[in-house]
Specification:
Length: 97
């Protein structure tokens, strides 16, 4: 668990205790009336997390025309299914509401 010091001792010897943590790598637990209230440990050298926005930029290649249906037969089946469910499809491909 590491070294435990009271709040008054930590306040009086803060600089020395922080150096001990830095040099030894062992955390110090600061207590108040015998109950742990804080833990002091070395700073992490982990790199910052990269934002998820833009992570996949440049990894997708679009081939062909996205506006053309992949398969005219599939499109007719899709329209028939939605018409049967009560969502008739307009000529522009969007559902009527």
């Amino acid at each position: 668990m590491g070294k435990m010091v009271g709040m008054a001792e930590f306040k009086a010897n803060c600089t020395r205790l922080l150096r001990e943590v830095q040099e030894g790598g062992e955390p110090i637990t600061v207590t108040s009336r015998g109950k742990p209230i804080a833990t002091v440990s070395t700073a992490s050298d982990k790199p910052k997390r990269q934002s998820l926005l833009g992570v996949l930029a440049g990894t997708v290649t679009i081939q062909g025309d996205l506006d053309e249906p992949l398969d005219p037969k599939w499109e007719k089946e899709w329209e028939a299914k939605w018409n049967a469910r009560g969502f008739p499809v307009r000529d522009d491909g969007t559902a009527n509401r």
